[in-house]
Design brief:
single chain; 250 residues; Rossmann fold; 4-stranded antiparallel beta sheet; 10 helices; binds adenosine-5'-diphosphate; binds magnesium ion; branched-chain amino acid transmembrane transporter activity; ATP-binding; ABC_transporter-like_ATP-bd
Length: 250
């Protein structure tokens, strides 16, 4: 009897992505299809970034992954489970954290109340998670009694990301987390996002700061008119002459 080590290895199969929206087609209500067969995926341990022109359907793709849009064709699979027909709330319960592009905080509530709201589905003790979030974003601890609407743009984005982390998500989706912040604040936010990803949470994010976002991306998607125009590693896309010319300003 030979040892297992000398046996031929099992046929390797590509690991399934942790989250995938596959061949998604659909739009809003009875309107025209915005998504035209687009596929977006994020693997375990990965930061995936979606870039593309305004109106390309980046936010629509995120909403479709989160269940805010009825797909006409295609499917969404989370950790091997088809979740295409689940409501957004049911997806949160399954481990999806989502920070939408707009209205992602409650401005009249305090920072701490915003974090508590993020955990609306949890019945256990929130304190440890809140401490982790204050560790990640120390300024939020200092400002925890202030109305979130009084904070700077970068601080409000920290509140929004912190709120999503309160559910202890197994995947985090961020739609333009650095919108409207200075380059320095953008760099800091990216550093924090990398830190979150290192805790083992795969991250899928839409970014208008395409070049900087692709620098930190394991995988990048260029979305155009609701479809996949280019897909590759962040470095591949940054080096691609056509991507550079058309989407990165040369
Ligand atoms: N709530 C909505 N109802 C109808 N059409 C929408 C809605 N939101 C976005 N759209 C349309 O979908 C298209 C893609 O928008 P969006 O996904 O927001 O693009 P991006 O995030 O890439 O800038 C646009 O033509 C936009 O006008
Ligand atoms: Mg958008």
């Amino acid at each position: 009897m030979t040892e297992n080590a000398t046996m031929p290895a099992a046929t390797p199969s590509a690991p399934a992505p942790f989250l995938i929206g596959e061949a998604m087609t659909g739009g809003y209500g009875r309107g025209a299809d915005i998504l035209q067969g687009c596929t977006i995926a994020v693997e375990r341990g990965e930061i995936a970034v979606i870039v593309g022109p305004n109106g390309a359907g980046k936010s629509t793709a995120m909403k479709a992954l989160f269940g805010m849009l009825t797909l006409r064709t295609g499917r969404v699979v989370l950790d091997g489970e088809d979740i295409t027909t689940l409501s957004p709330q049911a997806r949160v319960a399954k481990g999806m954290g989502f920070v939408p592009q707009t209205r992602n905080i409650f401005p009249s509530m305090t920072v701490e109340e915003n974090l508590e709201m993020g955990a609306f589905l949890r019945r256990d003790d929130l304190r440890a998670t809140m401490e982790q979030i204050y560790g990640l974003f120390p300024i939020l601890r200092d400002k925890r009694r202030q109305a979130a609407g009084e904070l700077s743009g970068g601080q409000r984005q920290q509140v929004a990301v912190g709120r999503a982390l309160m559910t202890k998500p197994s995947v985090l989706m961020l739609d333009e987390p650095t919108a409207g912040v200075s380059p320095i604040v953008m760099d800091e936010l990216f550093d924090r996002i990398i830190e979150v990803s290192r805790t083992g949470i795969p991250i899928l994010m839409v970014e208008q700061n395409a070049r900087q976002a692709l620098e930190i991306a394991d995988k990048g998607y260029v979305l155009v008119q609701g479809g996949n125009a280019f897909t590759g590693t962040g470095q591949d896309l940054l080096a691609d002459p056509q991507v550079r010319r058309s989407f990165l300003g040369g």
